[in-house]
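Fold these two proteins, one after the other.
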Amino acid sequence: MTPILNIISYFNPFKLFVKKESEALRPAQDAIAQSAPALEAIKTEPKKSDKRKFREATLAGLGEIGLSSSTSVAKTEPLKKHKSAIPPFFEQNFFSRISQAEKRSLTNELEKLKDQPLSQEDLRAFIEGDWSHPIFKSPNWSLQAFRACANGDLSEMQASKLFLFEEASRMTDFQTHDLSNADSVQAFLTSLKAFYSLEDFKKLPEMDLNDTQFFTFRFPLQKKKEAQTAREQRAVDVINFGIHDLEFPIHAIVHENDVEVFVIPPRLWMEVLKSKYGENAVFPEPVLGYSDADRFHDTSKRIVGIPFSFVSLPEKIHDFAFTKWLGLFFHDLFHTIIESADEHRDAWNDIVQNVKLDEKVLNEIDDRNFPLYARPELHETTAGRKLEENFEKFWYSLASFEEHDLKDFEKPENREKVLSYILSSPRFQQEHNINFDSLEICARNEPAKCSYSVKPWFESAQKVQTDLTRKKRYGFASLLEASNIPPSKPV
């Protein structure tokens, strides 16, 4: 029995509290009526069905975990005819990455739906995730949902869940779940044990039960290759499918013969990040399509690619062919974890904006692929010591670039460009304690063997610090305040 199972079994059984459907649905109905005048005649209540009831779940002895609040509906401009061949809603960020050819194709497909309006019952089924409703038997239901989102009748979060349902339902052993019972919660927590705990889970806010829905499917483990350990083979399997590894796979449970994959929609994922990282959590912004031109200068959010059957994706992204099996979606969720754990996002962004380096290097820094922030114990050392201080996570993340095959950082002059900016910036010193002194601490405390070494950076820093001190002494200081820390002896 796993530790998570032990913990949840201790609090078993779950107590389920049922709300009246009419009370739970009234806020959603009001929001729909406001955002879509054509639907203001909504008066009927949904059919009674235990499967669709809004329930609250609590862990016995812990008080309510709140899984109940009003469902929101986006208030965007209705889809209107436009002189251009492509409607203006495609300019919204959710749709903007779709290729021009596919925008034109979608425009034509939407035109075919003009005589097929959604009923209020269809829209309710979309909002609630009532998967047994007849609308989901329609061959073009996802296109209907796309139109509802373009019209403002569905939020981007609600539409994203529907498109993820469509994609995941094509997989083997597909199942739908919500956080209404102990078994679902146990599996949910086990799939996220690389970074998420029961204590984090208890911080989830009140949510409608339909906002706690998620999906699972399975894929077989590949045949083990010779000379590969079980851990190496697992890493091959999960990366092939875009499911990243922070010691344990994220969004997955590895069984003996297959991998059980957990598809957690952005609405629920947003609350997972907030319950774990608090105010430092990034907003997982759902988008359709893919663009190489995306940059991440807004450090408050991270885009999450949502699959949609009318929008294609490249065969390979970052040299990995993982766009099937929802691989891009999982890859982007991985980034939201390490971004939310990274307290230096603004500092990394400062480097990108202010240091002139090779574009490939700047793009890598801009991507902020630094898993040490989320799992500092991944920095393996002979002493078995994990990174504790935030400045350690920064300096060792910087050192990890050489692991990313960024050979430009092996050139001292490029290291010196970065270090010159960092060591002469008051912000790095005042806000983050990132300075010559903290780098020296890392270098002097570094064991004989570790995953990454900061010593080459410290050697370059000594030269940079000497130059900065000399310039300040003779009146040629940088416009930024230069550091006063004197150069130290080599490590």
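Now the second one:
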Amino acid sequence: MAKIFYVRERSGDYAQVNFFKTEKEALNYGISEWPDFDMFGDEEDEDDSYDMDNDTWWVGDSIDFKKGILFSFEEGQVYVQGMDDAAAREYVKEEVGEYGAAMFFASFKKGMYGYLGNGADGRGFKWEWDGIDLNESSKSLSSNKSNITHSRSFNAFINEKHVAPKEYDNTKNWEKEGSRYRYIPFAEFKSRQAAKPDFKTGKMEDIEVEQWFTSIAGQCDGRLQAKILKGFDKHGKDFKQSGDNMETYKSWIVAAMVRCGFMVEGEIQEDLIENITPSNMSGMGPTALPTSGADGSGDVPAGQGDAEEEFKKRKKEREAMLKNESHIKSFEAFSFDFEGVDIKNPFTDETARMDVDPKQYYGKEYAKSDIKKIIDASEEFISKYNEWKEYQPLDSDEDMHADYGEFVKASLEKLNVLVKKLG
């Protein structure tokens, strides 16, 4: 019987488990993800296991197994069980069912992990259950090792040097271009991981490196992009396997920071980076990434006045707004003059042409975002307001003063705190 250790991560609509040979490896990983991580803390105790800033539960544990491990996500709960292949296949059909998901690992291999949420992803698993079908994996560490080696050798033969385009293109079909991923694994975009010199996934294909930098360049996340530039300064061509394309990738990041106002005349605006992130920038309409032929959502087209003067003007307006908090101090300050008007869904796919459900489409990335916290609090507040409205007070003036404060005050204060905290 073998014993291994694991770190379990759960938040919203996703769960992830990373496996390790030793307790020390598991502990080090857990702390790198969340500084307060306790390897054997109480999973029901918020002080031991709950990362409030990222709305994530972290649990460490060990497991003894003989013939396999089943990782399942059932009705919001995460389970890691020792089980052989045949028993696991029967279990997922009868117990996990159509509303859950699972992955089976036949044996332990270094770097093994599993993610269940918006689809399934991982390394070293034999098959996964999607609620309907059992899908055999083509990503087993042992089974595709020779294929990856052959693919790299073949790619090197037909294309000795990958040259990234002068301007990034987020309309590419990355899988057709040769990438193993439709989307680069979410773990590579976590703030701590993105600043590290190499990828967590390991060796990337050249096209996958371009895919990752394209994703970074398409965002308005000054804090993250500043870390990328520091990585280039410190590690040069070795940073994120950028190689001879380093200057090109660096130019993409600089252009993104200038476009979003985080860099002016070559100087990073540190005050903005500390207080503004993509998730708290409002009023931008549907999310759309810029391309070489079109501006992205929230972009100001070039050639319309002095860019630096416009930046300074907007900065002063933001500072003035933050000083004047009267617009969010009380319930009476809110106006509902637009009742009956549909609120447009601000989430779209990468083309900005099709509305999407962020939970299903963006999965883990959305589940961990600040914008989800604000949206959830807003929905709770609106629900409480509508609940009060059903009582229909006789005096219309009453809705400016009060009794209904019992219905909405708590949810409004919660929303108020989040908005102040997150922007």
